[in-house]
């Protein structure tokens, strides 16, 4: 699957779409890697458009801008970035690219990482055996790309004017949690959620159902207001 292709999932027939998510994939990935995430969000009546890795194909950013400007896609429109895709999503938001109503950043990369084998890479990416198998048997997935440290845009959160949901695994060895938290620290528009035993590919990790539920709650709050009013409270 070429990195320039778009993988799409829509709301079930008969339901009104509640918004659109545009996913920027990470190193080695293509949009189809996010099929499980796209289908799950689609069931909740959100449209999902998953693109390739902007670090490998700069045309992906042009595609994202076109999708954000596409009036046939319902709002709110949320730009989702995984791994290096998160840095590029931040870049588009910092540049005030039209059409972005919010950001979701998953596994924000913060430095270099090297794996000694495919087994080590797969285990660092995800604890989900289903997703490990998906990557292992995917001819379009590029093994070893996670070892590359391409020149990435600076995470200029100070220039971002939309709500940000940051998702990060607590056991992420590719981008350790403490380094990611240092990037997010001091930015009041960032809501950070960490996942116990979570690894780097947090959208496709063993807790993917919990991650998807966290995303849906964020989206439902966003639909009410950019101030993200509370719609569920736990009483103790």
State the assembly state of the protein chains: single chain
What portion of residues belong to β-strands? Answer: 15-25%
Mean pLDDT: 95
N-to-C terminal Cα separation, in Å?
49 Å
In terms of per-residue confidence, which ranges show pLDDT below 50 for 5 or more consecutive residues? none
- DSSP helix fraction: 25-40%
- Along the chain, the helix and strand elements come as EEHEHEHEHHEHEH
Number of helices: 7
Let me know the number of strands: 7
Reported by name, the CATH topology is Rossmann fold
User: What is the total domain count?
Assistant: 1
What CATH architecture would you give?
3-Layer(aba) Sandwich
Q: Which class in CATH terms? A: Alpha Beta
CATH superfamily: Alpha/Beta hydrolase fold, catalytic domain
Radius of gyration: 16 Å
The largest beta-sheet arranges its strands as 1-3-2-4-5-6-7
- Gross morphology is globular
The profile of the biggest β sheet is: 7 strands, mixed
SS content category: alpha/beta
Q: How would you characterize this protein structure?
A:
The protein is of the alpha/beta class. It has a single domain, classed as Alpha/Beta hydrolase fold, catalytic domain (Rossmann fold), CATH 3.40.50.1820. The protein has seven helices and seven strands; from the N terminus they run ββαβαβαβααβαβα. It has helices spanning 35-43, 59-69, 84-94, 118-125, 129-136, 177-184, 208-224; strands at 7-9, 19-24, 46-51, 77-82, 102-106, 164-169, 190-195. Strands 1-3-2-4-5-6-7 form a seven-stranded mixed beta sheet, sandwiched between helices. Strand 4, helix 3 and strand 5 form a beta-alpha-beta unit. It starts with 6 loop residues before the first strand and ends in a 12-residue tail after the last helix.
């Amino acid at each position: 699957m070429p990195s320039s292709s778009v993988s799409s999932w829509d709301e079930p027939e008969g339901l009104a779409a509640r918004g659109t998510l545009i996913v920027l994939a990470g190193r080695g990935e293509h949009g189809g890697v996010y099929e499980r995430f796209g289908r799950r969000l689609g069931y909740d009546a959100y449209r999902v458009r998953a693109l390739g890795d902007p670090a490998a194909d700069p045309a992906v950013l042009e595609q994202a801008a076109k999708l954000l400007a596409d009036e046939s896609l319902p709002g709110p429109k949320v730009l989702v970035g995984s791994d290096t895709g998160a840095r590029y999503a931040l870049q588009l938001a910092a540049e005030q690219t039209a059409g972005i109503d919010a950001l979701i950043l998953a596994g924000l990369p913060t430095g270099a990482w090297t794996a000694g084998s495919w087994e080590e890479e797969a285990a660092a990416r995800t604890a989900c055996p289903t997703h490990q198998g998906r990557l292992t048997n995917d001819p379009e997935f590029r093994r070893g790309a996670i070892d590359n440290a391409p020149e990435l845009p600076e995470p200029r959160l100070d220039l971002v004017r939309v709500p940000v949901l940051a998702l990060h695994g607590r056991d992420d060895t590719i981008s350790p949690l403490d380094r990611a938290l240092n990037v997010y620290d001091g930015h009041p528009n960032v809501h950070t959620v960490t996942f116990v035993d979570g690894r780097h590919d947090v959208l496709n990790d063993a807790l993917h159902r919990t991650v998807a539920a966290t995303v849906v709650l964020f989206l439902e709050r966003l639909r009410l207001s950019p101030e993200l009013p509370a719609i569920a409270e736990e009483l103790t």
